[in-house]
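U., I forgot to send this yesterday:
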Amino acid sequence: MTDGREIRLTPGAQRILDVASELFYWRGIHAVGVDTIAAESGVTKRTLYDRFGSKDGLIVAYLEARDRRWRDLVTARLDAVSADPVRRVLVPFDVLPEWLAPSSRGCSFVNAFAELPEPEHPGRQVVVAGKKWLRDLFRELLAEAGIADPDALAVQLLSLHEGAIVCYSMADEANAAASARAAAEALVARAVHQS
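Result:
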């Protein structure tokens, strides 16, 4: 999410974004052209370009919308969970089953990262910012829990989290989220005990 603000879309632009989001996720960003998106949205290409500027603009809007939904899911759960700092650190793992259920093609961000190899691509920048956000959230929550070295453990938790997403989709491991959560809980408990 580039600036933290949600963009209000007209109903037509929202329809374009919804269609593009489905197509980008299930078929791949490069496999879907603006002709297909416009046709399946019931609009002209001109309307698509008027609303999003370019295919890259639409890609960014797709990734930012997914990022907003993910962050909103995590922060809502953080707001609802007790003040127990260890439980708070595990929230991103707790929401994974809900997040992954409709996502059998894996993480849209990992998929986009693979399809957008140019570091300056605005879509890739959204992906990188989203993953850094999660790492930084882990770091912040670990510091609140009194962990002595939150930086190193934050990277470990991010790795477990991302691994669970990949295992869920690629290895058809329905229990990947629960297994990753158990490993994360053990790491955090050990770190709390050592602090």
